[in-house]
UniProtKB/TrEMBL annotation:
Stated name of the protein: Serine/threonine-protein phosphatase 2A 56 kDa regulatory subunit delta isoform
Record's keyword terms, sorted: 4Fe-4S, Cytoplasm, DNA replication, Iron, Iron-sulfur, Metal-binding, Nucleus, Phosphoprotein, Primosome
Compositionally biased spans, kind Polar residues: 80-89
Bias-annotated ranges (Basic and acidic residues): 1151-1161
Taxonomic source organism: Trametes pubescens
Compositional bias per record (Acidic residues), positions renumbered to this chain: 1162-1171
Length: 1171
């Protein structure tokens, strides 16, 4: 044995590490053939040992970049199928463990990916690790000396062996693999037979069949060869699916003898060595740029994960029995798999570990400790791990359930684990989850704020700007939940760091820091401590107001300074004076220092008689800074007094009319029509208004002089600013617009346009569509004729004008949005044109040059029907040509006067399409106010789910209210499909996941369920858990949603748009919109189950499914409402009232209750009050 050990160490000490660790995956090759038993190691063959050593010392040829190292061609017989193994002795000569580990040294070539470029010697020997037989098992040897049973990887004692340096080499020459298999311990080729299915087996034999199937699924196949053992892989896949369905549909099948077999099958398939990363020394994986590395064996792994999850979640699962098999070692093996590069596996691992943590109370502390160890290893050693984000997600849920007061162990975890996680370079991979965990701690214990903030400041990045932006975002979340008393403890170091960020030349860092002044709660904290904060940040704000290269920073700086000046003018003036005196003092000191050095310089020249020694030069010293004039500081004060809080810059950039001389991008003017382009930019507003923007003309317009001031403004006619109700929207509005007007005007118009598209999806005739849109326009977008003297015509037309241009900005961003916007706007224009009175219509047509003329009687002679015709080019009326409503003659189209509206609508459509294309081209240059971007983004989503109605701002019920006992009846009578599905899942599973609870809880809150009744309702619904668990894990969240905990915000229920666009449901989730997130078959079945008793039949489903297929989910929901409320008199096309579609779950429920009360002869009881 000594000779063997010496020979191996002379070549290079082998690396033997714990099985299933990353080092094993780098240095151990798990073979298919086992070594001989330790009893045979006593007879040593010197020739074989010498041959093995010579083969190991020979330089290997370069193998291809594959998962397995290729064998090295060497001395014949140097690597036989079964090499003699040896027992490793310890110091006193006994075996290294009670059951000796067997080691065989195979002379195989190392993979180039793991070779050390600095070491020119031979590669390390590859160690094959095999398990020991159990104490009661007789180890059998095959005829050629090898074992009959396939090998398994186990841990190997490393006592007495010297560790070798870690091999690292970057990949070069070949692109990284995107799919590969882990280092599985695959079985020898085994023919597995297809077992009979459960439904064809007698009940008495199913338990034994279940065990046999579990044994069958413990066979592991090699997926490196896609064509190998296809029959066996197919049988195993089918068997896994059969077992999955068996435990999901049958009760009482999980007996005590099943537990060890399930755990064994799970471990055999999943517990393996994770392969090293594709690029071990390069940049970390970036999910936005890199493709994930997928596991080749995933077809089997996925079903195994799903089976185990269903097994643990089964009602028959007995934790007391399972804890004998699911222990700490099981958890450790599970945690090692989190380093898998396949995101699908990490997602299943996250769910699996979370279920184990919830069910096994005895494992909770070990799980937390083990996760801590993973974090420590990641922070202080490797800085590489693929599963940190998933582990933090699990911890976020765990932290949420911590009991108060927090234990010392938990506080230590925060400061020694979570805070140091911020210093890792790959922070962006898991920062959202990390920030959530930190904020959860602060919501639990506000006294931790000082330690957290000081910890973040300790690890604040110096040169990594993207990371600094993340720190600023997290710090804002921390400040959102900090108490005023705790804020005072950290305000000085915090704002010193913020001042440095404001001074950053990276505009995103400076911009993110200045966005703190848009947070109302932080502004309140600053105003309460202004005497401390203002002197710290004023120098940075003043410097950037003059010198920063980015215009957006100038605007944000002026906002912040203006805000400070308005909060406390006296203090602001005092700090400004102090700043001026300090600058004067610094300048005086610089001048004094300059003069002193000048004296020294002159004295030196005198000492050398005016002649410098050879080799010396006398460079001119840097002159002192210019003197600071009082006027420089005073200009800032004057600018701030003249500029509103939302101004873009000082008055020096404005013309005599208060319009900024900076041209911006064109939001829609066709330059082929006019050389003058309109621009969108915030403009200074009166000092008493803090939220105004403006659309105004650019520098080119200003140069025309005072007489041309009306260019770009709607011309007046008969004393009216807007002479006609109809508008081609040639020029943008030039007016002061508040942010509220900017959003509400666009939303009201979008409600009309969304209903137009909804009407098309519901196959309404044009007559029906016109009636519905006229009714909605009266409500949201009234536009009275000029003859209506008592009506606010200019205000209505101003709203119409502004709303159109705001939607242009929102819908010019893609071809699909432009197409839908043009279709809806053209329809609205045609409806208005047809309903306009004749006189105003003629005046409007006369005001425009449409370039089409009235045909002469000779030209139209013989036309049928006779009458007036307009002559235009046929290419301008393609829709009329397609419908054969015109006469074509000589390349011209003769359009009857009855089709005049079609001609005008076609002109409007062509004009709008051009304008939108011009806006889209100018969009990259459009410097929009940062407050407008989220508004425009939300507007562009309005067509998908309809526009959120006033229900989006509804507060909790103030009438008779809703009690916990009433919810069941209400759900089956009045709830939309999304909420009824949540209710049914809650009743079935006695539980809902987080997003499901959030969606359903806020819906019930707005419906009138008080906080007291909500606690009763959720406690009764979660009947499987104990009171202490409910109070610890769920009570806080329920109170938080009612605004009684945390930030104490009165949260509104989710609208259809929010349900469709955010928090997409995953496996096992119940939230979301059934019309979008269910498969077609599941949706049909669910709708018939939910609404079959209310009149919905199979005959109605084709129409609904066709609407869903077209993507009009809210229209499908509206149609279901009409069918199920036909008994209350709702007709097709009426929607939830006046033809409107469903845009909010509470809108559906409230209208359903209203119809029900009317049918009973009752009035609406005012359960819900609109904010």
């Amino acid at each position: 044995m000594k000779g063997f050990k010496m020979k191996v160490s002379q070549v290079r000490p082998p690396v033997i590490a714990r099985a299933r660790s990353r080092s094993v995956s780098s240095h151990l090759k798990l073979g298919r053939k086992n070594s001989t038993d330790s009893t045979s190691s006593k007879s040593k063959d010197p020739k074989a040992a010498a041959a093995a050593a010579a083969a190991a010392a020979a330089p290997p040829p370069p193998p291809p970049n594959t998962a397995k190292p290729l064998p090295q061609p060497g001395v014949p017989g140097s690597h036989l199928p079964n090499t003699s193994s040896h027992t490793l002795p310890n110091a006193n000569g006994s075996s290294a463990s009670a059951a000796a580990n067997r080691v065989s040294v195979a002379s195989a070539a190392a993979d180039r990916r793991f070779a050390n470029p600095d070491r020119a010697g031979a590669a390390p020997p590859i160690v094959v690790v095999s398990p020991d037989p159990s104490a009661d098992q007789q180890h059998t040897i095959s005829e050629n000396g090898g074992p009959v049973t396939p090998p398994r990887a186990v841990s190997l004692t490393t006592r007495g062996l010297r560790p070798a340096p870690k091999d690292t080499i970057p990949i070069s020459g070949k692109p990284p693999r995107k799919q590969r298999s882990s280092r599985f311990v695959v079985n020898e080729k085994v023919e597995i037979e297809r077992l009979p299915p459960f439904n064809e087996t007698p009940v008495s034999e199913r338990a034994q069949l279940f065990i046999r199937k579990l044994h069958q699924c413990a066979v592991v196949f090699d997926f490196n060869d896609a064509n190998a053992e296809l029959k066996g892989k197919q049988i195993k896949t089918q068997t896994l699916h059969e077992m999955l369905e068996y435990i999901m549909t049958q009760r009482g099948v999980i007996t005590e003898n099943v537990y060890p077999e399930v755990v064994k099958m799970f471990g055999t398939n999943l517990f393996r060595s994770i392969p090293p990363p594709v690029n071990p020394t390069g940049d970390a994986f970036d999910p936005e740029e890199d493709e994930p590395v997928l596991e080749l064996a995933w077809p089997h792994l996925q079903i195994v994960y799903e089976f185990f999850l269903r097994f643990v979640e089964s009602p028959d699962f007995d934790t007391n029995v399972a804890k004998r098999y699911i222990d700490q070692n099981f958890v450790l093996n599970l945690l090692e798999l989190f380093d898998s590069e396949d995101p699908r596996e990490r997602d299943f691992l996250k769910t699996t570990l979370h279920r184990i943590y919830g069910k096994f109370l005895n494992l909770r502390a070990p799980i937390r400790r083990s996760i801590n160890n993973v974090f420590f290893h990641f922070i202080y050693e490797t800085e590489r791990h693929n599963g940190i984000a998933e582990l933090l997600e699990i911890l976020g849920s765990i932290i949420n359930g911590f009991a108060l007061p927090l234990k010392k162990e938990h506080k230590t975890f925060l400061m020694r684990v979570l805070i140091p996680l911020h210093k890792v370079k790959s922070l962006s991979m898991y920062h959202p989850q990390l920030a959530y965990c930190v904020v959860q701690f602060l919501e639990k214990d506000a006294a931790l704020a000082e330690e957290v903030v000081m910890g973040l400041l300790k690890y604040w990045p110096k040169v990594n700007s993207p990371k600094e932006v993340m720190f600023l975002s997290e710090m804002e979340e921390v400040l959102d939940v900090i108490d005023p008393a705790e804020f005072q403890k950290i305000q000085e170091p915090l704002f010193q760091q913020l001042a440095r960020c404001i001074n950053s030349q990276h505009f995103q860092v400076a911009e993110r820091a200045l966005m703190y002044w848009n947070n109302e709660y932080i502004v309140n904290l600053m105003s309460d401590n202004l005497a401390v904060i203002l002197p710290i940040v004023f120098p940075a704000l003043y410097t950037n107001s003059r010198s920063h290269w980015n215009r957006t920073i100038h605007a944000l700086v002026y906002n912040a300074l203006k805000l400070f000046m308005e909060i406390n003018p006296d203090l602001f003036g005092e700090v400004m004076e102090q700043y001026k005196q300090r600058k004067l003092s610094e300048r005086d000191h610089a001048v004094q220092r300059y003069e002193e050095w000048q004296k020294v310089r002159e004295r030196a020249r005198e000492n050398c008689h005016g002649k410098l020694p050879e080799g010396y030069v006398d460079p001119e010293p840097t002159p002192p800074p210019p003197p600071v004039e009082d006027l420089d500081i005073m200009d800032l004060s004057m600018d701030l007094k003249a500029v509103s809080i939302d101004a873009e810059g000082p008055l020096s950039d404005l013309d005599e009319s208060g319009i900024e001389r900076v041209p911006m991008a064109d939001p829609g003017m066709d330059i082929s029509v006019s050389p003058i382009s309109p621009y969108l930019l915030p403009r200074p507003a009166p000092p008493d208004d803090t939220s105004r923007t403006t659309m105004f003309k650019p520098k080119e317009m200003i140069s025309r002089g005072a007489n041309d001031r009306k260019v770009g403004i709607v011309e007046t006619h008969n004393g009216l600013k807007y002479p006609f109700r109809l508008n081609f929207y040639d020029r943008p509005p030039i007016d002061d617009i508040t942010i509220e007007e900017f959003e509400t005007f666009a939303l009201d118009r979008l409600r009309v346009l969304a209903e137009i598209e909804s009407s098309y999806a519901r196959n309404r005739t044009f007559t029906e569509l016109t009636e519905v849109i006229k009714a909605i326009c009266i409500k949201y977008l009234p536009l009275n004729a000029s003859s209506a003297k008592e009506k606010p015509r200019d205000e209505e037309r101003r709203k119409d004008h502004i709303g159109h241009f705001v939607l242009r900005l929102a819908f010019c961003r893609s071809e699909e949005l432009r197409r839908r916007f043009v279709k809806a706007e053209t329809t609205l224009f045609k409806i208005r044109f047809d309903s306009d009175d004749t006189k105003e219509k003629e005046q409007f047509l006369g005001s425009r040059d449409f370039d089409w003329v009235l045909a002469t009687s000779e030209e139209v002679q013989g036309f049928d029907p006779p009458g007036r015709y307009y002559k235009v080019k046929w290419t301008r009326v393609p829709d009329l040509v397609e419908k054969r409503r015109v006469v074509l003659k000589g390349g011209m189209a003769y359009v009857p006067a009855t089709e005049q509206s079609s001609i005008v609508a076609q002109e409007f459509q062509t004009h709008l399409e051009k304008d939108l294309e011009m806006t889209a081209k100018a969009l990259p240059r459009l410097d929009e106010d940062t407050r407008l971007i989220p508004i425009l983004d939300n507007l562009s989503k309005g067509f998908l789910a309809g526009v959120s109605s006033e229900w989006s701002n509804a507060s909790a019920g103030a009438g008779d209210g809703l009690t916990a006992d009433m919810v069941d009846e209400m759900a089956f009578k009045h709830f939309p499909a999304c909420m009824r599905n949540l209710h049914m899942c809650l009743r079935r599973d006695k539980h809902l996941k987080h997003f499901g609870r959030l969606q359903y809880g806020l819906f019930l809150k707005i419906l009138g369920l008080s906080i007291e009744e909500a606690l009763v309702f959720w406690r009764k619904s979660f009947s499987k858990i104990q009171d202490d668990k409910f109070n610890k894990e769920y009570r806080y969240n329920i109170r938080h949603s009612y605004g009684l905990e945390g930030k104490r915000a009165n949260y509104a229920a989710k609208s259809c748009q929010q349900i469709l666009m955010s928090d997409q449901p995953g496996p096992g989730d119940s939230h979301g919109c059934p019309y979008r997130h269910f498969s077609a078959d599941n949706l049909q079945s669910a709708l018939l189950t939910m609404y079959g008793e209310q009149g919905l039949t199979s005959a109605d489903m084709p129409e609904i499914m066709q609407t869903v297929k077209a993507g009009h989910f809210h229209v499908a929901c509206t149609r279901v409402f009409e069918i199920t409320h036909a008994r209350q008199g709702v007709k097709k096309g009426e929607g939830v009232g006046e033809g409107e579609s469903v845009t909010h779950p509470n809108q559906y429920a409230a209208r359903s209750r209203e119809l029900d009360k009317k049918a009973e002869g009752k009035d609406e009881d005012g359960d819900v009050v609109m904010a």
